Amino acid sequence: MTDYQNFNSGMSPSQIRAAALQTHTDAAKRIDNIHAVPPLYVQRRASSITIGMHKQHERRVQAGGIPLVAFVLQEDGVFGDHLVCKDADGTIENIAKPWMFRRTPWVGKIETRNGVFVTYAFIQDDASMRRVRVSGNLEQQFVVPGYLAGDVIYAAPLKESDHVEIEDNVTARFVDANSDGRAWAAVRNL
Questions:
Q1: How many helical (H) and strand (E) elements, i.e. helices and strands, does the chain have?
Q2: CA atoms in the 13 A half-sphere facing the CB of 148
Q3: Which of 82, 92, 114, 171 minimizes the number of CB atoms within 10 Å of its CB?
Q4: Nearest-5° angle of CA 97, CA 95, CA 113?
Q5: Of 43, 4, 9, residue with least CA distance to 24
Q6: What does the pLDDT look like over 106-151, one tens digit per residue?
Q7: Do both 109 and 185 map to the same domain?
């Protein structure tokens, strides 16, 4: 952490240390060089800087005509069946994960999928990792690419009658459209 000298109006030049002035100048240059990747933007004002999401990216239309809403995944916002995100107005929403990425429907399930015998188990604290026994071989699988705080999640709104009740009586009004093409991927055989 850099120690910044406070500058007050009326200070004489002899009261300002050269090193402090250089530190402030360097910090201002770094702030001026902040850039954002769409749909985020950087807005500079005389006394502040704002990083936000462009309103035109708040909604976009999927090929099937379903309007998608853009959300930003929050820090520690990944749970077994849902994501905690914020919309462009700053409203917190619980977004249901796509069916295949949810934990609850698959815990302890045994099935034949595409001709392969599969059993599912999940690690208690890791919402994006599972163990799958495929024809006798145990695989550890992760959602790839992983969910990271700050990711833009495009989600489809659900009709009120279709709202999803998930973990601990959490209700989701949106479901992640998986526009990033996330998938389960085997990392290593155990």
A1: 1, 15
A2: 6
A3: 114
A4: 10
A5: 4
A6: 888 888 877 777 777 776 667 778 877 777 788 888 888 889 999 9
A7: yes
Q: Does the residue 5 lie in any domain?
A: no
Residues 30 and 80 in one domain: no
Residues 6+ apart with CB under 8 A from 180: 145, 151
Instruction: Please tell me the total count of domains within the chain.
Output: 2
Residue 165 near residue 171, CB atoms below 8 Å = yes
CA distance 97 to 106: 13
Question: Which tens digit of pLDDT belongs to each residue from 29-83?
Answer: 666 666 665 556 667 777 666 666 655 554 454 546 678 889 999 999 998 889 9
10: left (phi over 0), alpha (psi -120 to 50) or beta: left
Domain that holds residue 126: 56-189
